[in-house]
Amino acid sequence: MYKKMLVALDTPHFAEAVLEQAEATANKWPIPEVDLLTVLEPLQDRAKVEFGSEWVRESDTKAKETALEYLTSVQRRLSLQSSEVKSFVVIGQAADEILKFIDATDVDLVVMSTHGRSGVSRWFLGSVAEKVVRRSNATVLLVPSRAGRAEAGSGG
User: Fold this and answer.
1) According to the model, what pLDDT value does residue 111 have?
2) d(CA 43, CA 33)
3) Buried b (16+ CB within 10 A) or exposed e, 90-118
4) d(CA 90, CA 113)
5) Which residues are bridge partners to 34 per DSSP?
6) Who's near 140: CB < 8 A, 6+ residues apart?
7) Pair 40, 89: CB distance under 8 Å
8) Quick one: average pLDDT of 114-137?
9) Which residues pair with 4 in a beta bridge?
10) Which of 149, 127, 150, 126 is nearest to 140 (CA)?
11) Distance between CA atoms of 80 and 82, rounded to whole angstroms?
12) CA-CA distances (angstroms) from residue 87 to 2, 5, 92?
């Protein structure tokens, strides 16, 4: 049915909600390829001016290494019966980079979490999940984030 699944992971406390669903989906319909993707937001131009381009490059490199270590730990925890798992880290705007990845690698199923934002915070911050759902040619499975629900309930 599906040949390639993308699991979009952001911060661990939000992303963890999708892992159980991604694992169950990949095992139910044996999906040959599963790609884990984290998109890191770029440092602002102000940081380049204040700290210099070299500092920004070093910070980006460290952030990518940390994100890749996280994805590697996720790979080890996943129990996939017949899927090859690969990890990717890119820097950019989350929705745009996820959509580019989908198109460039022929993903046909995306699994990602929602943060549970609503109202003004959703309008102000935008919704990565909403942009991906509206613009993707792939099927998108949205998993409500337990962390997002807890955050919304605490007023934070």
Assistant:
1) 96
2) 31
3) beeebbebbbebbeeeebbbbbbbbbbbe
4) 18
5) 5, 85
6) 109, 110, 112, 129, 132, 133
7) yes
8) 71
9) 33
10) 127
11) 6
12) 19, 12, 16
Catalogue the long-range contacts made by 65-69 (C-beta closer than 8 Å, 24 or more residues apart): 67/38, 67/40
Q: What's the chain look like in SS3? A: CCCEEEEECCCHHHHHHHHHHHHHHHHHCCCCEEEEEEEECCCCHHHHHHHCHHHHHHHHHHHHHHHHHHHHHHHHHCCCCCCEEEEEEEECCHHHHHHHHHHHHCCCEEEEEECCCCHHHHHHHCCHHHHHHHHCCCEEEEEECHHHHHHHHCCC
Structure tokens at 23: 């694992």
- Show the tokens assigned to 156: 């934070």
**What CA–CA distances, in Å, run from 92 to 43, 44, 87, 151?**
9, 11, 16, 25
Tokens of 110: 């995306």
Axis crossing angle, helix 53-77 with helix 12-28, rounded to the nearest 10: 40
Residue 115 pLDDT greater than 60, yes or no: yes
pLDDT tens digits, 25-52: 999 999 999 999 999 988 765 666 667 7
